[in-house]
Amino acid sequence: MSGPAPYPPPYQPGQGREDWMAPAQEPLPAAPPPLPQHRSRRATVALAVVGILVLGSLGWRVSAEARDTWWHGESHVPVPVDANGVASHEGVSIELVGVERLDGGVDTYDERWEPPAGTVLWQVGLAVESTNTEIYSLDTLVQDTQGRRFETGNDVPYGVEGIQDSLDVAQPEPGDDPLPAVQYLLVLMPEDAEPATVRLESSWSLSPDYFRLPVTE
Amino acid sequence: MANDVGALLSVPGIARWIVRTWPRRVAIAMVGVLVVVIAAVGGFARVAPEPARQLTVGETVDVGPYSVTVESFFVSDQVDIYGIPDEADAWVGVVMVLETSELEGIYTDHQNFRLSGADLVEERFQKVVLLADDSSASFLTADLPVHVAMLWPVRDSGAIGDEVELTLTETYEDISFLFEEPTWFAGDRIGVVTVPRDDEIPPAILDEEP
Amino acid sequence: MTGRQFPAWAVTVVMLAVLVGAGLGVNALEANAPPNGPIGVRMTLGRDSVVHPLQVNVSGARAYETILDEDENPLETVGVWVLVDLSYATTDEPSLPGDFVLVDERGRRYPITGRDFGEWFASPDLWHRGTLAFEVPLDALGDLTFEAWPSGLGPGSDTPMPYAVLALRVDPGTVEPGPGVVEEPELLPVGER
């Protein structure tokens, strides 16, 4: 075989052990032929694909925690609403009966309650049917056309006839009263808030799914 | 070539290198003899722990994150009635003053306190309440000393005598093994306080009879 | 390449759109999540400040030797009580603020007292006015820094979160014997603070 001598040179008995570590005596091998001037289209595509795969996999690793907490913990997957306006998920069916302005305040068990100037009290009616035994209640929020979310039961009076503090979802025990056909909740919003959707969420039992019921006129 | 290097760095290679000449063999043998001699004179025996230093009531002891001044203890089932675990029939409350100089404040740490002389449900204290108004004092803020009762649930509270012993152990802050957050680790035992009983309980922490 | 599939102006427009979009995205990310841990946002006394999702307006601070708890009993302290009067709301979602902290000149940090009272729940653009009570040693008075943390994460966190910072001066000489009264948080008419 001709060509450049192997490097490092083979060990020969009798020589010092360190000989193979000596600086190269031979000239360096010739440079490889230059790459073609024009990379083929296939190579370009392959490079792009590899780049995307590398970036993607790095991003996937880096975002693991964010995906875990946000993707699974935040309510961001709306349950589809059928043609009758009913959304069903895991045995819970919910229909939005109405969102109405309550102008002029409401009567509580002991006094009249009027919203502060510039705010409006709204009443949300929801019809819930459930065969689910694990979901007891859902957080009920009204989202306005500006994307602000207001939770029912905050800043509203207690002890109003026919109004519940929170939405009951659990299937009642045998012998108990059945769930009311329509449950009414109160929500307080600024005057400029126009209800757009009603959101029903639970970070414990439902996320990332949630009910999103559009408010129709 | 590479095989030679491998042979030189392999375990048998090293062993062979060590026992190649007489001076090396002698040195190795001496290390062995040394170990045997140390073992023979009892050098590897466990040292008995230092006897606990006796601390006195009223003495202010720095345990690391805060200082502790123990005063007395009481036994009561009228303190935090609804918080007593089912297995327990009363609380032992050790009355003390706690003060920290940690800038960010600090939580009281069960590692600093060990109680003996009562049949504890759990070795850790369960809560720290402010004598003035029964609110939780498990978080201490800098330079605001608090007069508190530290509560352990106990079984068989009638058998508790006139003294209990509270062992105080130092803790120190270090970065935990996984380089996560600074953590407090238990250090040396500082000493033992013999705590006298005083069942006169500040009325603010007494619950009404249920 | 065997010929152009897209006219040059279309390619230019698309590239510009991508560039501007990426810039806006990064801006939005940075506004909500500064990359280097918590970032202090300076507040002004009596002005609305936004630290997502919180809007805060601090009107002042006062100090008392004693204050009354919710049952009107005086709360004893070896220090003094600093009461911070403020109103807050959120921007777009219901939220319980994480932490309110008073920091003194020596860096000692005092969270709101756990002995009584507390913070209150906030809703978008519905402002509540109330009082936060801090128990501090007398020698902490002087130049204080008030911090409002929308999330419960503290200064040691590496989570990129903005928090609001306000310089508050409470002179040791202005401590009143009291007892100071901590008002219940009150829902305000729109526009009031």
Describe the protein.
The complex is a heterotrimer of chains A (217), B (210) and C (193). Chain A is of the alpha+beta class. Helix content of chain A is 15%, strand content 31%. Chain B folds into two domains: 2-40, no CATH class; 54-205, Immunoglobulin-like, CATH 2.60.40. Chain B has three helices and twelve strands, in the order H-H-H-E-E-E-E-E-E-E-E-E-E-E-E. In chain B, the strands form three sheets. In chain B, strands 2, 3, 4, 7, 8 and 10 form a six-stranded antiparallel beta sheet that branches. Chain B is elongated, with a radius of gyration of 27 Å. Chain C is mainly β. Helices cover 13% and strands 37% of the residues of chain C. Chain C contains one helix and 13 strands; from the N terminus they run H-E-E-E-E-E-E-E-E-E-E-E-E-E. The relative contact order of chain C is 0.23. Chains in contact: A-B, A-C, B-C.
Please name the defining characteristics of this protein.
heterotrimer; A: 217 residues; alpha+beta; Immunoglobulin-like; 2 domains; six-stranded mixed beta sheet; four-stranded antiparallel beta sheet; 12 strands; 15% helix; B: 210 residues; six-stranded antiparallel beta sheet; four-stranded mixed beta sheet; 3 helices; 38% strand; transmembrane helix (chain B); transmembrane (chain B); membrane (chain B)
Brief overview:
Chain C: This is DUF4352 domain-containing protein. The complex is a heterotrimer of chains A (217), B (210) and C (193). By secondary structure, chain A is an alpha+beta fold.
Tell me the total number of β-strands of chain C: 13
Total tally of structural domains of chain B: 2
At the first level of CATH, what is the class of the largest domain in chain C? Answer: Mainly Beta
Q: Tell me about the biggest sheet of chain C?
A: 5 strands, mixed
- Shape label of chain C: elongated
Give the count of helical stretches of chain C: 1
CATH class of the largest domain in chain B: Mainly Beta
Q: What is the averaged pLDDT score of chain B?
A: 88
Which strand-content bin applies to the residues of chain B?
35-45%
Main sheet specs of chain B = 6 strands, antiparallel
| Spatial strand sequence of the major β-sheet of chain C | 1-11-10-7-8
The helical percent of chain C reads 10-25%
Number of H- or I-type helical stretches of chain B: 3
The stretches of 5 or more residues of chain C where confidence is low (pLDDT under 50) are none
Secondary-structure content class of chain C: mainly beta
Evaluate the radius of gyration of chain C. 22 Å
